[in-house]
Amino acid sequence: MKVDFCIGWRTLKYEWFFLRGYTSEAELRKSLAEFVEFFNKERIHQGLDYRTPDEVYEAGLFNGCNYTNEQAA
Known about the structure:
Largest sheet: 2 strands, antiparallel
Number of domains: 1
Shape: elongated
Distance between the termini: 29 Å
Number of strands: 2
Strand content: 5-15%
């Protein structure tokens, strides 16, 4: 599982963690993996011009935790 530490921690906490009642560590780990998958592949981001992080990365526009709006050559 690839983990992008630039993900929105607020999103993780408020949309995923606090709204679910985990009963085991295994359940929490499974849910976190689902979150990373959803956040990177499905959830569009206003700060990324309404793209997913994977779309930005694949287009070559990702530079660490910085995003450039320039089109890849």
